[in-house]
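Hey, I'm writing a tutorial for new members on how sequence and structure tokens pair up, and I'd like a real worked example in the thread rather than a made-up one. If someone can provide the structure for the chain below, I'll link this post from the tutorial.
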Amino acid sequence: MENSTKKIISAFVALIVLTIIWGYNWVVMKSALQYAGPFQFAAMRVFFGAVVLFVVIYATKRPLGLKEFPTMLVLGLLQTVGFTGLLIWALVEGGAGKTAVLTYTMPFWVMLFAWPMLGEKVQGWQWLAVISAVFGMLLIFDPLHIRADGFSMFLAIISGVSWALSAIISKKLHQRSPHLDLLNLTAWPMLLGSVPMLAIAFIVPAPPIQWTGYFIGSVLFNVFLSGALAWLLWLYALQILPAGVASMASMLAPVIGVLAAWIQLNEVPNRMELIGMVLIALSLVIISFVSIKKHAPVDPAIGQE
């Protein structure tokens, strides 16, 4: 019993560490874009992140082979270009806090897309989550007074949509091939997706990268801490805790992102934005509680950022 308690405590400590890493990384990414174009930074993040994951796979003697190539390619495009590329683009002109919150509407989109794609109907308390999330997004967007960062907020939501679609496809892939290794399932889409990301980085004009100490540190932070270490902590927590509990804890990341942007970048949300963020947070909490109640496992591949 004592050993089990220690494992549970260590799993929660792992979750706290990774949510701090994921949450603070929004400020790191926003600040790093002073020294490089969004696509150049995104390309470095995903390519070197994939390299690190393959090193981990090799070191832990997990299967290296590529399976389910067409699906892996689609996942790579959604997770790398659609999710990572768009969220970093959104950070160029938008605030780190708002981008974090809007990107983390992902579970809301998963719930909606699961209806036509997986036959999982929205019902009961989930409708309250839908209403809360919709009103939250409307308050943040404030469509009657569109601001200069309207396009950035749109990109952040599309980033969350891409993340959600990749989660649905990952779940369908897991149902079809349940024995696929999770690290393999993460590394190959990241590597495949980094190819078009690198091409975009070379094609889209951007000022020369300023190789400052901060920029190099931010790339290393994204590759090793926000990438490899956070992923390993996530896998460790999932081995001990229910997936629903682990996923709900990871929702602290956008909260940390908002607070860090508030403190470090002076991004103070106005009253409407703050209410909208609270409504979106309420929606995510409802979705997580429903997931725990149903004992419906959440695919680990959707919990990254």
